[in-house]
């Protein structure tokens, strides 16, 4: 069963709030016995990219997304983290 845990947050970088939200979401995914977690981000958001890589995520896709991304490269990146083995 596919289930979404979604949040959007705009804060000053370096406060650790997004990292704590990510940790909480990963905890929820584990409790629900998720096998993988997927995250989409703007390609040029380097702060979130670093946070995701540090948490064990890896890139599985990159695509042009002009309807969602109005500036910069206009590309989205999908990250994946494996939680439980299949």
UniProtKB/TrEMBL annotation:
Q: What is this protein called?
A: N-acetyltransferase domain-containing protein
Note the superkingdom of the native organism.
Answer: Bacteria
For this protein, the record's InterPro entries field holds:
Acyl_CoA_acyltransferase, GNAT_dom
* A Pfam family reported for this protein in Swiss-Prot or TrEMBL: Acetyltransf_1
Q: Which residues form the N-acetyltransferase domain?
A: 14-57
């Amino acid at each position: 069963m596919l289930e979404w845990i979604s949040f959007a947050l705009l804060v000053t970088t370096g406060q650790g709030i997004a990292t704590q939200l990510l940790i909480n979401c990963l905890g929820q995914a584990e409790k629900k016995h998720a096998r993988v977690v997927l995250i989409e981000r703007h390609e040029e958001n380097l702060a979130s990219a670093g946070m995701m890589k540090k948490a064990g995520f890896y890139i599985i896709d990159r695509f042009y997304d002009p309807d969602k991304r109005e500036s910069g490269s206009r590309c989205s990146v999908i990250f994946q983290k494996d939680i439980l083995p299949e």
